[in-house]
Specification:
Strands 3-2-1-4-5-8-9-10 form an eight-stranded mixed sheet, sandwiched between helices. It has a two-stranded antiparallel ribbon with strand order 6-7. The protein is built from 15 helices and ten strands. The protein is about 50% helix and about 10% strand. It is globular. The chain is an alpha/beta fold. The chain folds into two domains: about 5-200, Rossmann fold, CATH 3.40.50; about 205-350, N-(1-d-carboxylethyl)-l-norvaline Dehydrogenase, domain 2 (Orthogonal Bundle).
Length: about 350
Amino acid sequence: MPSFSSFFGFGDSYEESRSPNEFPGAIAIIGSGSWATAVAKIVLESVSEIWWYVRREESIAEFKRLEHNPSYLTSVKFPVDRIRFSSDINEIAREADTLIFVTPSPYFKAQLKKLKVKLHNKFVMTAIKGIVPDENLVCTEYFRTTFGVPEDQLLVLGGPSHAEEVALGRLTYLTVGCSDTERARIMADLIANEYVKTTISNDVIGIEYGAVLKNVYAIAAGICAGLKYGDNFLSVLLSGAVQEMNRFLMAVHPIERNVYDSAYLGDLLVTAYSTFSRNRVFGQMIGKGYSVKSAQVEMEMIAEGFYGVKCMKDINRRYHVNMPILDAVYNILYERISPTIEIKLLTDSLR
């Protein structure tokens, strides 16, 4: 098999001559937030160059000057001579073979509206832990149904992975999902390094839904912390959460999986317990009495679980899965029911 670096052909556009058999080819990062920055750091450990879509030209100029992202994970120095920056998403999509999308889910659809390049002969990996707004679809389903990307060219990156810990080089475990397990293995081998261990899965849809639900449950954990519930109850809450997640995944995508694997339970635990978790912090502020709007303003960062709660509630209207934790968080955030009252009712339903 050729080396990863031999796939790169920067400079000339060769979209028509590419074959989807050449995997992963030239790799591009779409997004410039903290997780996108962490993913770029990981990929650059193994490949010679990457393309990187950054929306604003002034951010690119600052990035090149400072040799780090001017807004996120500023401690991470980048070899900017090995990065092809562009604020034109269509240039990125033309030149790269594998597009890794790492954008906040609320802005995902709006960014794709700018895209004119066809994606049917591209490989698309999503590292987005959210639902496509207004569509109630996980991201790989949106790429398949809207952009015609074949199922075996769609990948997902999951697992417990705070960007801040990747920046520090702390041990991280990631799962690469793809229906083509050989492609999953190639990508898993590419991103593995001394601080990133990888595994593969064919449960693309399950990993994506699990990533959305863990944000919902992290908000619930934060609300309980804000209400001064202790670790004893939090352990019961998360025990109920993993059972609730499993019920939903089996309803929406009934395949054999181990929900206790790191891509599911591991991601849930790190998001629910960690002080790095935006969703937990958001929930904690709600539990302390902040309104949704005031919590969002004060955080200055997106808690994707807020949007995921409504999407999952809408999706579950089709499946009718028993999901008391999801329902409780929805009632607090969208029906404006008192967190004190709603969590008290939830405590009576958990065992």
